[in-house]
Amino acid sequence: MKLVRQVKLFFQEGTSDKVYEIDLCESGDGYLVNFRYGRRGASLKDGTKTVFPVPLAEAEKVFQALEQEKRKKGYVAAGEAPIVTTGEARLSSSASSAFEKRKKSIIKLLKAAASGEEAEHWPLPRIIWRAGDLNLTEAVPHIIKVANESDPANIHSVVWAIGRCGTSDAVGFLQNLQQKQSIAVHTRELVTDALLKLSSPKEKEVMRTVLLATLSSSIRESIATTDAPRLEKTLRELLFELKTSSNEFLVNVYRLVRDDQKMKGVLLSILPQVPLVANNFYAVRRIFKAAEMLQDHDTYGVLAKHFESQPASYKTRHYMRAEEKKKLAFSTKTKDYLVGRIERELRKLGDAGSDAYTQLATAILLSFNETDAKEPNHISVYKYVYNQSTRRNELLETKTHFDAFWPYNSLNYILFKNSKRYKQVKRGWACVAPYLPGQKGPMDREEAFPSLWNHASTDVIRILGASRISIIIDFALKIWGANADFQKDVITEDIVRFLQSPFSAVQRLGLDIAMSRYDRSNPDFALLLALLNSPFDEARKQVEIWLIGAQREVAGNLDFMVALLQLERPEAHNWLRKFFANHSFDPQQAEILVAKIIASIVTAPVVTEADEKRIGLIGDSLTTLFNDVLKRINLSIIQDLFHHSSAEVHGLAGKILLAHNVRPEELPAGFLALMMQSPGASTRGIGISLLGRFPENMLLDKKDLLVSFCLSPLADVRSAVRPIIKKLATAYPDFGKELVDLFVPAIIMKETYEGVHDDIVALLSEELGDSLVAIPQDKALKLVASRFRAPQKLGVVLVKRQVKFSELTVPEVVKLANNVSEEIRHLAWAAFRADTAKVKYFVIDALKITDSEWDDTRLFAFDYFRENFTATDWTPELLILLCDSIRADVQDFGRELITKFFDPKDGTEYLLKLSQHPTTRVQEFATAYLVQFASGKADVINTLQPYFITLLSQVNKGKTAKKRVMQFLKTESLREEAIARMGVEIFARVSVSVAITERAECIAALRDIQQKYPSIKSPLKVKEYSDYVNN
Amino acid sequence: MVFDYKYKGETTVTNQGGSTTMNFSPDTYREPTYFSGFLNKKLPFREAISALHDIVVSDFRYKPKDKSDYKAWAKQQEDLWLAEFLKSGPEVEAKLTAVKSQLAVVRQKRIELQKPFWDAQWKYLTWLAKTDPEARYLFDPVITVHPDEVFFECFSVDESSYGKLGCNHNVFTKVNEFKCGTTNVDYSSELYDEFQKIRGYKDTHLHVDPSGFEVQTANDESFKEVKIDVPASWVRGFLQVSSAMTLPATEFTLHPMDVYNICFVLRRHKEKEGPRSIRWVLKKNEPVTLVFEPWNLSVRCGRSIYEGESKEIRIWGRRRLLLLERLIPVSNSFKVVLLGSGLPSFYIADLGDMNFTLGLSGWTVNDWSRIGNFDLLAPRTQVDAFTMQKIFLGLRENWVESGESLAKRLNLDRAVVLGALSAFAQAGKVIYDINAKAYRVRELSREALPMEELRFANTREASATLLAQSGQVQVAAATRDGKTVLTGSVKDKTKYQNTELVIDRDERVVSGKCTCNFFTQNKLMQGPCEHMIALRIALREKK
Question: Using a CB-CB distance cutoff of 8 angstroms, which residues of chain A are in contact with residue B16?
Fold first, then answer.
């Protein structure tokens, strides 16, 4: 077989990229025409047009015909310009005729199957499914005929096809089917869904009642009353808080709400948050299947995104048991399948040229938002490549980059199927070099099925108005740019949405359309509002140009004014206030306007933060523009505002009340209490400042109220009430005293709320300062000595204000000198300095100041005594008292004074008393007096016995003292026998020591004593060694 | 374990020029107990009560040094060192010196600037720690008034030392009416400071406030309610030590200077490695000898002749003996009571009319490495509840009585009485006075202590005891690298676990192995498994 001629044709459109090769071959004595076709790059399928060799002429003819046919379909040879097939042309000619042909052949095949001839190349269930796929309503009667309940695939396809494109004629068949228990559950579920779609309204109502009965009462009621917020609350509670174990009720909820956009919106807002775990997944998948069948694009889109964005929860392993897998859901396999199915659905719809493609694609695109963007990233593959020139293996890094939305297959498919910068890889959608994430995209269109988008003006407008993702907006703008006629399909609501978009190009688009639509003589107010409320400043400028000088007309339009005042943006309100700055409103109209706005505020609940902001803006605009009206407004209206649950509304009411003509004391009873209960701090502040405007005599009656404000848990209330208290306390001293009596015990008790004590102390010391005289002096001293901060702080204030230090006793002053507060300590020092005579008189008490915990006070005391006390003032008793202190610095001070004012006649007393000191330092100090004052005095030495033992028992310290004592004892023992007895006792005791020096000295002393007084018993046994001669 | 106290006012010590009054504030929740008298033996009392204070605040547990400052400095310095090391030419060197000198100036400046701040902060924190009314961690000592004695008891923060100061009534003069009983007293560190001011020439009045129960209003602000959360291990340690007193033991007497010598060796030497023990070498009719390991320094107590059977006993946690230092000059002799190696030991100082008992648990740190070494809270004799009640009430009639005389008086078997009394000692209701060789009523807490919770530190210890007692343990001991290696198998339910335990020369568990699940999961992170403990208990029983 020899190839004579060959032609290679290519076809590219949307996602399809096909090859068709035709060969003309010489075979023996004839010629053959063979062909191969398939996807470019993939293995091609082949066939032949000539079963047997034919003569060349005939073969040529067949060859030509085939090439022509393919070229007609849009195939071109390599290098040739592709035939630009506009969608219409294609649909009208080739595609639509192909569709017709396909339809015919399907119906033909179904008819044949009904008469018992099953097509061999195409299984019947697939044919039925395909009929549904292509929405072939006329095929339904035939489908019903070929239905076979015993074949699960068949009956499922039948139901699915009827659900997709059936009519009410099929209801009977379906109802019949519903009764049969033999068919599979998932098929029966589809039957229910199909029936709900096709039944008559009356039957539908019956079915709804049955379905409602299966739901819990709370959901049932909220669906029955179409109460969307309640449904949302209930569902969230069930799914995310209670985490119900079986969530199949979701399927019925979907069935019941899918015809109501608002209720369905609730379900669609919740579905993306439902975790894909075993107890939920079954229901979610069922909803997905039903949405697919019913072509409910919104639900399908939301779930498609949900499936793509959720990681699979496990990977199936061959060793997993069935019951184990039952507890799990959404495996990698399931995820891959679902993602593939979504792509296939898109492709099928696109291939069929159906409008449903753009609708579905729009739904999917709109289900994504900015938060779905990932960090652009890359994967590196390293490879060693042998370099001939360097004779080395070099590391080669290949980076594959992934852009922000790389994991989302459907999104990328829709936006970039024909893109040169992205390609589908196993992981997701990768960037194709040289494109890198963050670079600017090309100007030409990259989406799949561009021709379909060229006819989908509604979808493109919807995307432009609603999407918040820049790549989607870019895509939509490209389509918009290529189709100038889209603009005619834009309605006012779309312009409003365009103007609210965060993308300046879309805003600009909105403004341009608005400008082209605007009619000065008959302005579209909705459009004006949208322009004013846009983030786009130019839009407002444009409105200004249009409305200049038209204040009167605008003010005259009541509804428009109401809408204007309720705009959300601060810029819009600023504009509004500026616009009407010099305009005086007609009082009657203004009154109606204000009433209307307040009515709308009172009735509308404040839920979101945006609402709160809006209320604030409305309040400001009202008070700026309609001050006159607000002055005279009925108080009951304000009261209504205060009854509202939101703090913002209370703030608004407070503002109005401040502007109002009414005198505070004339406010109805309970008005202030209402304000103080508000959760808003500003409202409470306004309430208190209103209270402050009361005449004083009336305020006195409200003492309880004022006290409760002072002790309020809210810091702003406490601080706001202080000026009032000050005013009253100045005018009525008795009132101040009463408050002091109330508050002083309050700070001694445990603090109820953080900061209350501090505020009360501040109040007492500042605003009520003059009333503090009521507190007696001893109470003040008690307070200042408190261990707790608040009473202590108050004590400081009191002591500073009213305690006369000259009247205090010395111990009291000493105690104050040890106070935590530095000021008080300084005052105490001053008292010491002021009355030295008194200090000298109560010197024993006064000396205790040296025991203060505060270094500064001790230093003061040392200086003070050094300066003011002379030798005559000091007695040994006092000096020993100083040394008896436990503080080293005081002991040192005492020792310094003893040394300074030492009188030998007191020596023995010092020795005896200081020897009892527990501190080694002082004990050692006392050893200095030993020789002088104890030598030769047997009675003194006897009383000092414990002292000697103590000194000699100091472990590893007091070397000097020990030496002194031993020397002294030895000398004295040798002097007098009575002392020697005691000395032997002590030396015998200490001689046990393992410290060699001590031991040696003891032994030497014992030896000497024994030599002198052999009669005294001692443990020492003297051995004479002749070898050791004294030398 | 939460203990609630309620004191009326605070314990105060008032020093007038020539006299001191100590007003102890007792727990008003307890049965009223009061005592009032003037001190007779002032200086010995001062020293003894100071020693008791030392025990209350003592914490001999190892505290690792905080080296974070040094490490931060070293890290900063590293760059410099590196630069110095890498310096290549004179040019660089000159640059380096310039930068270094600049840096030094800057740092010095920084130190100068920050110093007042740091000083002030340190001062403030010290002050705060002292004055913060919430920062209490001491378990208030217990005062017990008995017809013949008033005694103070305390237990240290580190849960290892017990102190008791008993004063017979000769210590006091002018004793007023008193009421026997036990109560907690409010205690603070200022009190210790005031004790130091006791002098022979000042009258000192000790006063356990009898007005404690004469209170009518509950809202009196001078009431101080204290809730102390005492760790269960603390209470267990206390009970273990006091129950150890009832066990038969080796006794001998030391000269005060022998204790001086012990303290001397400990002050002069610092151990850096184990074993950190004192070996008492006791030979019949020979002087008591101590060997300090690891230096093998021996101290011969020439004037203390041992009269019992020859033996050698090792004790650990010897640094705690420094608590006796203040008692050396005022004591006549020290009685040493040793229960055995690694078991509690007692040192009773004879101060004439006072006696001071220092009880030490086996080790300073009672962590898991010692678990299962001994079980002092094991029930010894089973006595029925009625007899128990009878014996307790019998003892309460006289407050203090020896086991024999109580048995005679109540007409009960001596063994039964002793068994019941030791059970009471374990429960903290009675103590054995080693000095007087008699039992004394002393209820540690107002409510009965939960003995089931206290006996074991954890469930593993409990089940290990059960395993060892039911004879499911086979154990063999060998020595490897100077360490004892216990190997054996423990039958737990149906399975045999192969267990190995290595004990060092300080009787600590240093490593171990077991085939059980607990060990596989936790290794020794949460302490030894029940099988290891059982092995150790079995070895103890075997010995």
Answer: 844
